[in-house]
Amino acid sequence: MYGWLWDRLPGGMGTKLLTATVLVAVAGVVLWYAVFPLLEPAVTLDEVTVRK
Amino acid sequence: MLRAAGESSITAGLILLLFCAYLLWGTGVYTQRMQLQLQQELVEEHARPEPAKLRKIELGRAVAMLRIPRLGRDYHYAVVEGVDAEHLKKGPGHYPGTALPGQIGNFVISGHRTTYLAPFNRIDELQRGDEIIVDAPEARYTYRVTSQDIVYPDEVDVLASVPGKPDIEPIRAYITLSTCHPEYSAAQRLIVFGVLKKTEPRKE
């Protein structure tokens, strides 16, 4: 999967590396700021109240 | 085929790791911002010419500043009114309907242990006699820790006006802190009890 993607990145080694890094960073930012906040309420490892 | 499966697994693992990092540290960013707002609210409340003795505090508003010297000289969190998920994200939350700071009865606060800045992460270190200081707009209330307990999540007796004794009318002011136990688990609750020792009205 990653090999296939790598072959399709344009340019020489340097450009490929730069593009790949940017793509990974974008994926990370989308996860951190958009996906994780939506998932967080489903994680109930830190329930702190006492109630019936 | 095998290669694709391996790559997906590694990717999933990395995403999961990143999610754990988000839970532990990323969630605190929001809390940090909300704490600044709540602390500002307290400053404004204190600056009012006549701080109301018996305030009616709306959900989501600041109640008082909590300080616990045992957990560090700088340990301070603004307590927010309410204990729903949205309130506890902002900081330790006061159970609506339980006593206000310094009042006869039980001032009950819950706080996160591992996420959202984890304000109550180390309350298990509190020992008998340790100070829990509650700076309300009208006065500073100093409670002293009396005991700790570990209970199941539905043992609501700890919230009673006299903690653990729901049938008795209170004649003293208590404080009760609750958080999850063990760390990273929702199985039980860690409870710290205290009783009011000293009240110092704020000087104008």
Describe the structure concisely.
The complex is a heterodimer of chains A (52) and B (204). Chain A is mainly α and 52 residues long.
Could you explain how this protein is built, in words?
The complex is a heterodimer of chains A (52) and B (204). Chain A has 52 residues and is mainly α. Chain A has 2 helices and no strands. Chain A has a domain at 12-39. Chain A starts with a helix and ends in a 13-residue tail after the last helix. The mean pLDDT of chain A is 93. The longest helix of chain B is centred in the first third of the chain and has 46 residues, at 2-47. Chain B has one domain: Sortase, Chain: A (Beta Barrel). Chain B has helices at 2-47, 85-88, and strands spanning 62-67, 76-81, 93-94, 105-110, 131-135, 139-151, 173-181, 188-201. By secondary structure, chain B is α+β, with helices and mostly antiparallel strands. In chain B, strands 1-2-3-4-7-8-6-5 form an 8-stranded mixed barrel. The A-B interface holds A 1-3, 28, 31-32, 36, 39-41, 43-52 and B 3-4, 7-8, 15, 18-19, 22-23, 26-27, 83, 85, 88, 95, 110-116, 120, 151, 153-156, 158-159, 178-180, 184-186, 189, 191.
